[in-house]
Structure formats: C-alpha cells, structure tokens
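Typical record is below.
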Amino acid sequence: MKKIRYFISALLIAAMPASLLSCSSKDEKPKYSKELDNSVREEIHKNAAESDLLTGDKLENGVIKWLSDWDINPDGTGKNVPTDLAVFQERYGGTVKYYKCTFQNRYDKLAEYINSDEGIDFFYGGNLDAFPNGAIKKIFAPVDDYIDFSSPLWEDVKELNDSFMWNGKHYMAGVQATGDKVGVIYNRKTVAEAGLEDPAELFAKGEWDWDAFESMLEQYVDIPNQRYGIDGWWFEFGLMNTIGIPPVSLENGKLISNIGNPSMERVQNWMYELSQKGYVAIGSDDLGWTEHPAYIGEGKTLFYPSGLYEFYKEKAQWSKTFGNDAFFVPMPKDPKADEYYIPTGFEAYMFVSGGSNPEGVAKYLDCKRFTHLDENTKALADKQFLEDYGWTQEMLDMKDSMQELAEENPVIDISKGISDDCGELLDDSLRKAARGTPWNETYESIYATVDKYLDKINAAPEAADVE
C-alpha cells in the first residue's frame, strides 16, 4: 500500500499586475489550430465505446460553459484537441463553450455572469483560490449530486477529494493530484560547461536534495560575471512544500496553523541563508523584481523553478526561452523529511452556482478520469507530448516520475482560498526570508494574526466574512 498523506495548506503566489482586458463569450479564433488525425479519433471513439467505465447515452444538451483565462479547446500555442475533450466529443457529443477572461478578473466576471443568469457551468479549481472561500460565499455548488466518488471511475481519488470537503460536502471535483506544479528548469549545456553534475543524474541516484541544490549554486554563482542562481516567482513555495508540512492544514473540518512548526522554521532559515549568500537572483540589485527566464537559455541563470506548463507548447516556443538543451527535475528533496515531498497541483473543477448543465460537466470530468485510467487512451495522450510539444521520451519519463511523487505524498496548498487578507499576508510573509528578512522576525509579526483569521472561519464557517 502506498503511504498517502494529504495536506491542505495556505500559500499565495505573487500578485499579478492588473489587466485592462475583459472577458467575452464571443468566439475568438486562435492564430492556428490543430485537429486530431482521423485514425486517432477512431481509436478514441472505439476505446470510449467499449469501456464499462463510461456510462450513459449521448447528452441531450452537450454544451458546457467554461469561464477561464485559458481555453480547453485548441489554441494558438499549437495545442491539439486534448484527449479527454476528444473522448467527451466522441462518447457524449459534448462541446466546451469558452468564455474568455484574464486571470486577474476571473472572479469579477464570474460574479457578473452569475448575476446575469448566463449559466456558466464550471470554473477551474486548480489555482487553489476557490476553496473554501467560494463554498462559504455559495459562488460554487456541491458536486455530490453529479459525481459518485465511490464509483470505479473516481474511487482512486476519493480520499484526495474527501480532503477538500466543507460542511460535509464536496465542492471541488479533483481529477488527480499532479506533479507538474513546480519543477526546477535548467539548461544541460550550462550545467555541463560549469563542470557540474546533471540534476537528472543526481535524481536518478537518489542524491537530488537541498544539499546538492545548494552545492551547485555555490559552484556556479558569480554575479560580477552574470552567473545567477535562482530566478522566478515559484521557488519559495516550491522549496517550502518539500518539508511536507503546509503553513495551514485542514484537519477534521478545522483550519489549523502550522507556521510555528520546526520544519517551517528550518526551511525558512535555509532560504534566508541562500539569500544572504547571493544565490537568489530575483529581487537582487542586478535583476530587480523582473524575472528573466530567457537567462536559462542564454546560460546566465542556473535554476528557474516553475510549472511545467512552460513546456506545454510547441518546441519552437519553449526552446526560444530555455534553449534546446532545457530539461527539468522535481524540486530537491528535504534531506530531513520522512518522505520525498514535492509541490503538488490539484487538477480540480468547481461547479458554478446556477450553472445550466452540471450533468454535462460531470460527464466531461468522467472523460478526464477515463483518460487517466484507460491505458490505450492514456498512451494517446502521452503521444501528444512527444509529437505536439517536441518532448523527448526522457522528458516524458521525468514528468511521470514527478507524477508518482505527487500521488505518493501530495502536498497541496490552498490558503489562497481561505480569505483574501489571510492569503495576502501569508504570501508576502512567507517570501521574506528569501528576500533577506530573518524568519523569527516574520513569525513574531504574523502568527497571532493568522490564528485570528482561522479562528473566525472555524467559529462560523457558513457565515464568516472572508473578504
């Protein structure tokens, strides 16, 4: 039996600049789009038709309305029709109608559509800022009437989904824990020219940990000669997640603060040391507060921790930034942790209150689960990475290794969804050590306030003011 420990925590990624772009239900054609080969469609159709996992007839209403800053359908990145969408199309005659918005105004536009009775059906929960706030405010509806987590399709992720229950109901439909949330992106040519051992080889030997990570930084960083260490906005949270203990956890229906845990103190003190040694490029006098991912391709920066979505596009696009020799590995293991924990994403979807077709959304999510479970269909999905994104088999194998780590010991951070104020406080505060502020100063300034935020929600979870 795998050891499963589900953690729900409170971290907030950096605030993104406001945008003047607005949402629209108007269909917008991408620069170009791809279509699946007929032979692939035929195989998907056959697999879905013959499987006992998918039940029911074609939908009378196959249109489901999706509000997001990204499209499930093919777009201008060279993305093909996703395999799970093709299953939905072939098995249930389904269609995803895209309502476009920006990341920054997602919730404003969602409120507008709810008030206008547009009937938006589903919203992405994987940004981990929708729960429990959205459940408390009744922006989102329980999914239990439409998804049976005890069914053969969903039983493998039932325990994970049960971790996100609020007042006895499921508000997040989690398809899977994902290992691609944050990995260490680097350039193999840069590493080799510096005389360093490839992180992928260290990982294969079981030696990719904090010590190896810091040792490479120590040997590489030379700021006067434009050799920088760590860049990007994801590394603080990525490193914190490797301790396996989130800043805030959900235990027995109550939110619990863990910022006083000794392991949190340890990782914060380590990030402070990395900062003091000049290994953190973002925020430094040389780079300022602008990230420079292209420095990976130019051989100027050693590590750029980020989501693997950076590689979910045609090779011409990702190699332009990171170089032809770009590769990635998981975040380094905490040498004192009981398991190898990595930042874990949660591919999850929220059912919008007042949605016009929750049954259709449930069938689409069934198709997603089917794609993960049916070996023949999963193989078709993997083939897309090789053919559409120009991946090598080694990249696909590393992604699979990260997925296995995430499923074995998931560390899922969701406090962006606790409250705006609590999330902003933690986001700013938990980054300060990597920016040169000793952890003891930060802890003393925030621990009582964090407790007050959590106590308020715990005392009245249905009535709490979570603005």
Residues 7-177+346-389 form a domain with the D-Maltodextrin-Binding Protein; domain 2 fold (CATH 3.40.190.10). Confidence is low (pLDDT under 50) at residues 1-32.
